[in-house]
Amino acid sequence: MAVAEKALSYGAFSVGDGRPRIGVRVDDSVLDLSGTAAAHRRPYADLVAGPVLNPLMAAGPEVWAEVRDDAREWVLNEPLIALSDVTPHLPFDVADYVDFYSSEHHATNVGRIFRPDGEPLTPNWKHLPIGYHGRAGTVVVSGTDVVRPDGQRKAPGDPVPTFGPTRRLDIEAEVGFVVGVPATRPVPLADLDRHVFGVVLLNDWSARDIQAWEYVPLGPFLGKSFATSVSAWVLPLAALDDARVPPPPRTEPLLPYLEDAGTAPWGLDLALEVEINGTLISRPPFASMYWTPAQQLAHMTVNGATLRTGDLFASGTVSGPTREQMGSLLELSWGGRDEIPTGAGKRTFLEDGDEVVLRATASNGVSLGEVRGRVLPSRHTR
Amino acid sequence: MAVAEKALSYGAFSVGDGRPRIGVRVDDSVLDLSGTAAAHRRPYADLVAGPVLNPLMAAGPEVWAEVRDDAREWVLNEPLIALSDVTPHLPFDVADYVDFYSSEHHATNVGRIFRPDGEPLTPNWKHLPIGYHGRAGTVVVSGTDVVRPDGQRKAPGDPVPTFGPTRRLDIEAEVGFVVGVPATRPVPLADLDRHVFGVVLLNDWSARDIQAWEYVPLGPFLGKSFATSVSAWVLPLAALDDARVPPPPRTEPLLPYLEDAGTAPWGLDLALEVEINGTLISRPPFASMYWTPAQQLAHMTVNGATLRTGDLFASGTVSGPTREQMGSLLELSWGGRDEIPTGAGKRTFLEDGDEVVLRATASNGVSLGEVRGRVLPSRHTR
């Protein structure tokens, strides 16, 4: 594959004790974009001066294309730094973080596990992409350790809740979409790529016992808010143009603002991988997602909610139809019933010291990189 | 009351086309704190240079006290600007916004309206302060108009949802707590005033039909995310020291991190008022809140979630035990059944053009000011 066709992704990095700069990653090398753009006196140099991508993200598709054209040339002709010599930082300041629930397979599995006698999907599920706001302040960059959270846990048979470390620490393999250009009006389906700068892999760490006790009636809170990991390098959305595919057939009519039949599709053919302690345990297919990022963005703004640069919205757990395609341990262990072999023994949920890596590759050959995190013991037990 | 004992509150204001500056409000006048601190070469002058309170908020209680001592003198001896001559701005950059659900009367009313045959409170309600994350990017300053949101609405008898303006636009009368000093460890009950800078009034606008259709299983989303109004002037938490009262008796034992028996109490005796179109329709008593802000902050951080300067957490709707003390139209109209007289006719929910004002006064005589907003027609119908 020629370099010109290779994916270039954007991040924030430092070397030694230096201030974070903006870099372009290509394979296992990094171009110092901050320094190179300044040296070449590019008009956008201030936007990529660091320490975060937000100014570039806000500048819009024309500037993004200009920077990408330059970067394609510079990764061939300018000095590069070895990826192993840089420290990655959170690549953008997160404004609001929204998490969706857009895999029909995941939502169906969760429904079957928790409500075995009821309909697995709630009545609203096929009419709108269900979502909720998460904690923006605890979004962390790949490589950050995750401390096992403490909280209230109550099993169905317990008379009262107890306090302590979660016993059901889980992952959720997701894809996150990073908003660049703000909006003060609802964003129609066709405008996704005018607002979204790029894509990250995202691990929505979840404490299932804390979540189960707290979430009725207002949704997940402390079961999710301790940490959400994102990959260090943001892949421009434009790099996935060749990986766009139609989403699954819709089985309920959609209201006009969500109706994407006849529009250019925004399903994405991405092959995810979930690895725990070096063992590949699942291959979730993103093309199976029922709701697309274009529908998620249209829904999120249809009530007049404004968008800011740095808004992050995630797909929800990606799960395919088969066991080996499930994107959470809750599903892979079927609610803790079955054990999953990993490189450090069998698991239902995560143990202290476990390391989780999510990776993804698009059908056009472009890599989305990885998001990595290791579990540390709870504060309570140390 | 001597000026030295009067409440001084902090905000961001501009005059004409000027850049927002930090001001101190006393009664109907404003001191230009940015200019006065600079002129007096105070060491904290950079922290109050504007355009927002965040640097001052981050500086901590010792600096807050120093600024307050100066401001008490300056409002007597320096020139003041008439409140009517300034334009207020959102006084702080909101980091994460969390909304609690801490009034037993409100939660019980909502349970009775929506689940008349079941237990009104969910089993977790007396064990933890239920909360969820809201949208930080749509927190707006008092006086900002609120556009009626569009969205999916489905009444129980409808076969499918329809799209259009909410038919059940509501208010929620709340008190918000503004975090100044960050935290990377759980915040114990006794440390509330080391982290919280001040207090605002907050109107958590709610579209009940959109919320009812969307909120199972992950909680409120578009029914709340279109706008949340806060008062323009932040009252320092220290100004409410004399208004602290014990919270209501607890009817379930609390886990140690929430157990506040034997600690200095953080109930607050604040008398709220809800006015629609000039008619006082309710007087919610904040002292009736079951969960205190100290418990909310301890709970919010017990899982290791970090705090940032600008984090805003709100009490949830304040409702007392009687009809004339309810803090939402959902309760006042008992789910839309009863009409409420206002200065512009009877209401169940809000009509376009309605103006809502929330006010509050503490038992020590200190005013929390007001939060005001007017309803504009939806984008869909204009």
From TrEMBL, chains A, B:
Keywords: Calcium, Hydrolase, Magnesium, Metal-binding, Phenylalanine catabolism, Tyrosine catabolism. The active site is at H106 (proton acceptor). Mg(2+) binds at D204, K224, T228. This is fumarylacetoacetase. InterPro entries: Fumarylacetoacetase, Fumarylacetoacetase-like_C, Fumarylacetoacetase_C_sf, Fumarylacetoacetase_N, Fumarylacetoacetase_N_sf. Residues 8-75 form the Fumarylacetoacetase N-terminal domain. Its cofactor is Ca(2+); Mg(2+). Its EC number is 3.7.1.2. Residues 98-375 form the Fumarylacetoacetase-like C-terminal domain. The keyword Magnesium applies. GO terms for molecular function: fumarylacetoacetase activity; metal ion binding. GO terms for biological process: homogentisate catabolic process; L-phenylalanine catabolic process; L-tyrosine catabolic process. NCBIfam families: fum_ac_acetase. Pathway: Amino-acid degradation; L-phenylalanine degradation; acetoacetate and fumarate from L-phenylalanine: step 6/6. Substrate binds at Y101, R115, Q211, Y215, T317. The keyword ATP-binding does not apply. Ca(2+) binds at D99, E172, E174, D204. SUPFAM superfamilies: FAH, Fumarylacetoacetate hydrolase, FAH, N-terminal domain. It comes from Virgisporangium aurantiacum.
